[in-house]
Amino acid sequence: MVWEWRCFAPGEPELLAETLEEREDLYVLAEHLGPERNLKLRGGERVELKLREERHESGDERWAKVFAHDLPVPPWEARELAPALLPGGRVPVRPIRSASELVQFVHDVGLGAGRVIPVRKRLERSFRAGVQLERGALVCAGAPYSTWALEGYEREDLLRARTRLAPPPQPPMGYAAFLASLGA
């Protein structure tokens, strides 16, 4: 489980260092998926589901990665994804080989109609006092955005690190909530 404090703002930031990572993630949003579940295809090739276990008014969120599997996801592994998405929901038993099949799987579990939102990312990271600082340039819904996040295993480390930052221009939130706020 990792604590995260993440913010987004319109426009592209100037990244200070060479980009450490560049990729396109495909986020899945659905009618009843909610901001407490972050489902994506990392780099278009790895299904990942993170669940938000706790959120503080300050925007600090504790996330746990509960599912990660490269495509194709065989039926016996997909059976494990279904209850993590919706406890007590339907459990489709079939492989997941693509983004469209993942969206159909989400629908069949009982979370309603879904869609894929591509997010291109250029990320840089640094580490200090047990906290990772991530700065990124994003393109989603055809527009540039910047993001920055603090991540660590102890919330107290995030609180200390955050005191050295300027207040964010937008309220802190995770990727699922941000994409939903864009109407993407």
Keywords:
184 residues, alpha+beta, Hypothetical Protein Pfu-838710-001, 8-stranded antiparallel β-barrel, 4 helices, globular
Side-by-side strand order of the widest sheet: 1-5-4-3-2-6-7-8
Q: Which blocks of ≥5 consecutive residues have pLDDT under 50?
A: none
Rg computed from alpha carbons, rounded to a whole number of angstroms: 17 Å
Could you say which structural class the secondary elements and strand pairing correspond to? alpha+beta
What series of H and E elements makes up the topology? Answer: EEEEEHHEEEHH
What's the domain count?
Answer: 1
What is the beta-strand fraction?
A: 35-45%
Mean pLDDT: 92
Terminal CA distance: 28 Å
CATH topology group: Hypothetical Protein Pfu-838710-001
CATH architecture level-2 label: Beta Barrel
- What is the molecular shape? globular
The major beta sheet can be summarized as: 8 strands, antiparallel, barrel
Q: What is the CATH class? A: Mainly Beta
Helix tally equals 4
How many extended strands?
A: 8
Q: Fraction of residues in helices?
A: 10-25%
SSE order and pairing:
Blueprint (H helix, E strand, L loop, with lengths): L1 E9 L10 E10 L6 E6 L3 E10 L5 E10 L4 H11 L13 H13 L2 E15 L2 E10 L2 E10 L2 H8 L12 H7 L3
Antiparallel strand pairs: 1-5, 1-8, 2-3, 2-6, 3-4, 4-5, 6-7, 7-8
